[in-house]
Design brief:
This protein is α+β, with helices and mostly antiparallel strands. The protein is built from 8 helices and 8 strands, in the order ββααβαβαββαββααα. α2 runs parallel beside α4 and α6 packs across α7.
């Protein structure tokens, strides 16, 4: 068991590889598999270092390096390799790379407007990355940050909800419409846990069917537990 920011947790992988690939594809879209693998290799190397660092992946890395020139060490665009990460991660500040793993700046002091995305219980490294991400978030400037704390704790910004198949949602919504559904508690609990994924029309269907189920007459000795 380990304790992070006062909260005890069971050991888990510091960063799930599948979730990383999913986030990269959703943020940048259409990235070549080779580029995805290069980014993951850089993240793995960053996590192996004893000191923390921030890896900023930006679709506008070259432009950002120019804009942040006064608070970063600008370099000629260079293929970032795991070996270079081992050497550069000791420098204070973030490493700025493109989705193709081309580095444009090191030692970047991240800027941004304070927003509700940060966490007062977290360190300066995490909150500076959170502010930068919030300020950079737009369709023209796809950005993600991987924050490695000195204690080995890893955060990925944005922390997106996992993807699920649309067919699974449709299956659950159709199941609750069944007249004599016997496992409606299981179905309702699943829909409650995954309500973020429901469309407005699906929400209307679920609310209507829940009202139907709970308003139906019950057998003697039968009882319903409402959420």
């Amino acid at each position: 068991m380990r304790v992070a920011f006062g909260v005890p947790k069971l050991p888990v992988p510091r960063l799930d590889e599948e979730k990383f690939y999913s986030t990269v594809r959703r943020v940048f879209g259409g990235l070549a598999a080779a580029s995805e693998q290069r980014l993951w290799a850089l993240v793995q190397t960053s996590m192996e270092q004893r000191h923390g660092t921030i890896l900023v992946i930006s679709a506008q890395a070259t432009e950002e390096a120019s804009r942040l020139n006064g608070q970063a060490i600008g370099i000629e665009p260079t293929d970032l390799t795991p070996d270079l990460v081992r050497r550069l991660s000791g420098i204070d500040g973030a490493i700025l790379v493109s989705p193709e793993a081309i580095c444009s700046a090191i030692g970047v002091i991240l800027e941004g407007i304070a927003t509700g995305y940060g966490d007062a219980a977290r360190g300066a490294r995490y909150n500076s990355a959170a502010r930068y991400f919030t300020s950079s978030k737009s369709a023209e400037r796809p950005t993600m940050c991987v924050v490695i704390s000195a204690d080995g704790y890893v955060d990925m910004i944005p922390n997106l909800l996992p993807q699920i198949h649309k067919g699974e949602i449709d299956l659950r919504v159709n199941a609750i419409k069944t007249k004599d559904i016997r496992d409606f508690h299981e179905t309702i609990n699943w829909l409650e846990d995954h309500r973020f994924y429901l469309t407005p029309s699906q929400c209307e269907i679920v609310n209507h069917e829940m009202s139907r189920i709970y308003s139906a007459s019950m057998e003697v000795g039968e009882f319903h537990i409402r959420p």
